[in-house]
Design goal:
The structure holds two protein chains of two kinds. Chain A is of the alpha/beta class. Chain A is 37% helix and 24% strand. Chain A is globular, with a radius of gyration of 19 Å. Chain B has 16 helices and three strands. The chains are: A alpha/beta, B mainly alpha. The complex binds adenosine-5'-triphosphate and magnesium ion. Adenosine-5'-triphosphate (ATP) binds next to helix 4 of chain A.
């Protein structure tokens, strides 16, 4: 167990370098480099030291039993844990080589770069247009109405929602179906022009057809973005991700190519989990 | 789930199975009985509440509705140059002049001591004299001409016309003599006296004469005071609640403040009156019995309620909305002002309007700051002396004339109508702006 709770490399020398042999095979560079990330809620530790490199332009899936800290770690990546008063984060997370938790980093700017999609679709109770336009508006990304229209349209197109809503942009976003709402939320995240999209169980409230649509979408978005997805569905992880990380009791047990994790897990716990022995 | 946990669960199920049905059946009867009993209690409680509300409304409306109708006298008045000195129009006895003219018209003879005209004057109204003087002052050329004047009839005469004073009462026990009743009947048959909706109640300010007393001054005073209260309580209360709920760190100090705010909401209103007297009047030297001081005191009183209502409606906004805003890079302030506050607005408005309606009906603290004086005119500004509706009710209720008591109930009805309107506004606003997610 020690192997996984302690950093494999001294943080300063390993930063920015791929640490896992399986990762060297990928041509892309790591977007995130996390070393010895520990999170406490009050005095209670939730993560015991996570080391992981997350590659750009690919999908990384976090799997693991409930309460193992997947969401907690995901929220470290755009500092959403800042909003929980009792949460305390230790360790370093580099985004393109820059420490996220540095005091100079403004979480507002960070979250524009690292967007987030939540488990339950949470559109604002405003129109579809306003939902997508809100992010660009507060960040001042559009100088004219035409520019904003363009951002909204292209974001909705990227989220493959445009065809379904182009004739009712000015209706309430909350009036859409669950799957459409989730794509709307993704469009809202895309509209800000992020580099990373974090998704916390984005399909858990959706039916299989809507899920399939989102998965298709994720696969497309992978060309442009770094995507991290938390999921409880092994099949989904296998379908959409290139890398899979298995969390257990606040530890990162194993991370590697999705294929390897599902066909040839190195750790007994990973094997037990993916074969449904516990969870 | 581990194997051992599964097997132990299976065991308990097996044990429970055989007599589960009989056990449930046994309990079912008492469960139904409990449900029925609870419903009966509920219906009883609601009935009692409705009954008392009904009695209350019946009493008030029964006493007060007559005040919404009043009787006026309309008569031609000859502005007699022999009795009015053009150089000193203020010096003339208009009441006497008008009374004599009405008596002449009605064929009532004056006796040598002038007691008849004295008695006749009582059933008319001094307002006729004022009106004549006013007309003459506005236009001195009217001297020597006939003008038509309308005035509310004397309060006792009004009560007689409404049947509140009848001949059944022993003459000595009533304010109207048998002779006056005969005169009044004659005035009515001659068509000089007519009954109509009591507009004076809304166009006149307070007066020592019940027939002239109206609520306009009190309504204006209440409006000014409520304005001061709203201007102070809403921004401060909502601001404080926003800060405490959304921005302040959750520590011992904010917990202490929260407890204190909840306690302040329970402090008797008269204590706020004492505070107002000590701080705003005695220490800061603000004008007594003014809507300003009243409004400040009521604002202090309404603050805790506004804060509590605002906080609970902020809390009712789902955290997912905050996360959504923060997740795309909105700052805390943007998340709050763009999303949370608008969603909490219906609740905030409802809570605020209801606490303002509460303030509108508040009496005790206003008595402490001297808002109990007789104010015959309209308040000119928030710093001038004014009367307010609940205090006007209190003053009229303590007046000796019977006609004032009728008006007391009418004033209560007016106050209730204002409150109902405010509550209605709260409900409508809530309906209108409530958003679902
Ligand atoms: N706001 C919080 N305050 C206190 N403890 C928390 C908080 N959020 C999470 N935790 C705890 O941290 C641990 C990890 O929680 P986390 O939400 O990251 O789990 P998860 O892997 O996302 O689970 P799930 O799959 O059920 O979503 C859990 O033990 C949880 O109880
Ligand atoms: Mg989670």
């Amino acid at each position: 167990m020690k192997l996984y709770t302690r950093p494999l490399y001294a943080p300063d020398t390993s930063i920015g370098k791929p640490r896992d042999p399986s990762m060297t095979t990928s041509a892309t560079t790591p977007k995130f480099v996390a070393r010895d990330v520990k999170v406490y809620y009050g005095d209670k530790p939730a993560l015991h030291g996570i080391d992981i490199d997350i590659l750009d332009k690919s999908v990384t899936a976090f799997i693991g039993p409930s309460g193992c800290g997947k969401s907690t770690f995901l929220r470290c990546l755009n500092r959403m844990n800042d909003t929980i008063p009792s949460a305390r984060v230790e360790g370093t997370i580099l985004l393109d080589g820059e420490d996220l938790n540095d005091r100079k980093v403004d979480p507002v700017v960070l979250r524009a770069r690292v967007g987030m999609v939540f488990q339950k679709p949470n559109p604002f109770p405003k129109t579809i247009y306003e939902n997508v336009a809100y992010g660009p508006k507060i960040h001042g990304l559009a100088t004219s109405k035409e520019e904003m229209d363009h951002i909204v349209e292209s974001s909705l197109k990227k989220a493959s929602l445009w065809n379904e809503v182009s004739d009712r942009l000015h209706q309430q976003g909350t009036g859409l179906s669950g799957g459409q709402q989730q794509r709307l939320v993704i469009a809202r995240a895309i509209a800000v022009g992020p580099e990373v999209i974090l998704m916390d169980e984005p399909c858990s409230a959706l039916d299989p057809i809507a899920t399939a649509k989102i998965e298709e979408l994720i696969d497309e978005l992978r060309q442009q973005f770094c995507i991290v997805i938390v999921t409880h569905s092994m099949a989904q992880a296998a379908r959409v991700s290139q890398k899979t990380a298995f969390f257990h009791l606040g530890n990162l047990v194993e991370v590697g190519n999705t294929e390897d994790i599902f066909t040839n897990p190195k750790d007994q716990r990973t094997q037990d989990y993916i074969t449904g022995r516990f969870g | 789930m581990t194997d051992s946990a599964q097997s132990s669960l299976a065991e308990t199920r097996d044990v429970a199975k055989p007599d589960l049905k009989t056990k449930v059946a046994k309990r079912l009867k008492s469960r139904h009985a409990a449900e029925l009993r609870f419903r009966a209690y509920g219906i009883l409680a609601v009935s009692v509440a409705v009954l008392f509300l009904g009695i209350l409304l019946e009493r008030i409306i029964h006493q007060g509705y007559t005040a919404f109708v009043t009787h006026s006298i309309t008569t031609e008045v000859y502005l007699d140059p022999n009795r009015i000195d053009p150089a000193d129009i203020m010096g003339a006895n208009y009441d006497q002049m008008i009374t004599e003219q009405v008596m002449a018209k009605m064929g009532v003879a004056e006796d040598e001591y002038g007691t008849t005209s004295g008695e006749y004057k009582e059933i008319l109204s001094p307002d006729l004299g004022f009106k004549a003087l006013e007309a003459l002052r506005d236009n001195p050329k009217l001297l020597g001409q006939k003008i038509s004047l309308t005035s509310p009839i004397a309060a006792n005469a009004d009560l007689y016309y409404k049947g509140e004073i009848t001949r059944d009462i022993v003459e000595a026990d009533r304010n109207v003599s048998d002779q006056q009743m005969v005169w009044m009947d004659a005035l009515k048959t001659k068509g000089l006296v007519t009954s109509h909706f009591n507009t004076y109640l809304f166009t006149n300010t307070d007066s020592t004469q019940p027939e002239l007393a109206g609520l306009l001054g009190a309504i204006m005073g209440s409006a000014m005071m409520l304005l001061v209260t709203a201007v102070l309580a809403i921004p401060i209360g909502v601001g404080a609640a926003l800060f405490l709920e959304e921005f302040a760190p959750k520590n011992r100090w904010t917990a202490l403040i929260e407890v204190n705010i909840n306690n302040l909401a329970a402090v008797p209103s008269i204590v706020y009156g004492l505070l107002g007297l000590a701080v705003f009047i005695n220490w800061l030297g603000m004008p007594r019995s003014s809507p300003l001081v009243g409004g400040v005191v009521l604002a202090l009183m309404a603050l805790p309620t506004v804060i509590i209502a605002t906080r609970s409606s902020l809390r009712a906004v789902p955290p997912s909305i905050r996360e959504a805003a923060l997740g795309i890079g909105a700052s805390k302030t943007q998340a709050v002002f763009h999303h949370v506050l608008p969603l909490a607005m219906p609740g905030i408005m409802t809570g605020t309007i209801i606490s303002l309606a509460h303030a509108l009906g508040e009496t005790a603290p206003l008595l402490m700051i001297g808002m109990i004086s007789f104010v015959p005119g309209l308040p000119e500004s928030v710093t001038s002396a004014a009367s307010v509706l609940p205090v006007q009710i209190f003053i009229w209720e303590n007046a000796s004339e019977r006609a004032f008591h009728e008006r007391t109930a009418a004033a209560i009805i007016v106050l209730l109508v204002f409150m109902i309107l405010m509550n209605l506004a709260a409900i409508l606003l809530r309906r209108r702006f409530e958003r679902r997610w």
